[in-house]
Specification:
This protein is an alpha/beta fold and 285 residues long. 33% of the residues lie in helices and 23% in strands. The chain has two domains: 2-64, no CATH class; 69-284, Rossmann fold. It is built from eleven helices and 14 strands.
Length: 285
């Protein structure tokens, strides 16, 4: 039995390393085994991840080697490459923070992840990549007040789909979590020593509206911009973005160009992605 287990582990290790197998082979393996167990391990060069089985973000990392990271690094072309701290709001299992630190794009990171299921894997991934001395982890959700709220989570297909809701309901997909304001964590940071990334399923504009102190420092900020998730008054919540940031880049554009940050230009971006039923990441500088 031990020989069988050892053989299985040997081939599993080979499968997880893209230098041994083509992407097509990884797809075939994943399709065959995606319902076996709750987790699986991925390793590629100097990156290692413990992943959820058959889930959007984890599937992308295993099959494509990343999740949204290629868009993220586009932003680094437009900011000074000083020693920066990454402030990752909605870190999930570390899909951005882990490669950003391992590839030395940042010296350290502050990460926020309130979903207890994703938090477990995030902690493991920080440890197996030997980044525990570079990451400060907070198991809270950022919003517009410091309190306790309910987080509704998709625990099946997309574990990045977490939404704060006004209910005290607790159950399989509902968690009571601590919340706080971004301003309470950015006192030591400025536009030269940090970058903020926010991906929180439409809560981005709510966080920004309550982060005047942070945004007044003009720290470069990347947010997920998905029209279907944004609040109806999203432009009102962007008031500090319009006040303190002069330009933005659409990072989904193959060749992002600098656009003046006006209400009309952002409304056009909103309408473009609303019509496409799609989303992008936007860098504000």
């Amino acid at each position: 039995m031990s020989k069988i287990v050892s053989t299985f582990k040997f081939f599993l290790n080979l499968i997880s390393k893209s230098k041994y197998l083509t992407k097509a082979a990884r797809h075939a393996f994943h399709k065959t085994n995606k319902f076996d167990g709750n987790f699986f391990y991925y390793e590629n060069n100097d990156l290692s991840f413990l992943l959820h089985r058959n889930e959007t973000i984890s599937n992308s990392i295993f099959l494509d080697g990343e999740f949204e990271f290629s868009k993220f690094i586009k932003a680094l072309k437009f900011i000074n490459k000083n020693d920066r701290t990454l402030i990752d709001v909605g870190a999930n299992i570390g899909s951005i923070t882990i490669p950003a630190l391992k590839k030395n794009f940042f010296k350290n990171a502050i990460v926020f992840e309130p979903n207890p299921e994703s938090l477990k894997l995030l902690k493991v991934n920080i440890l197996i990549n030997k980044l525990e001395k570079k990451v400060k982890l907070y198991d809270i959700a950022l919003t517009n007040k410091k309190t306790i709220m309910t987080l509704k989570s998709d625990l099946k297909l997309n574990r990045g789909d977490n939404r704060l809701i006004n209910t005290k309901k607790i159950g399989k997909n509902f968690f009571r979590v601590k919340t706080d304001l971004l301003d309470n964590f950015t006192q030591k940071f400025n536009r030269a020593n940090s970058l903020i990334k926010i991906d929180v399923q439409g809560e981005e504009s709510v966080i920004l509206f309550s982060a005047k102190k942070t945004l007044s420092k003009k720290i470069p900020i990347i947010i997920e911009f998905e029209p279907s998730n944004l609040k109806k008054n999203w432009k009102k919540n962007f008031i500090h973005i319009f006040a303190y940031y002069k330009y933005f880049y659409d990072l989904k554009d193959p060749r992002p160009t600098k656009k003046i940050n006006t209400s009309n230009n952002l409304e056009k971006l909103y309408q473009d992605y609303f019509d496409k039923k799609s989303f992008t990441d936007v860098l504000f500088i």
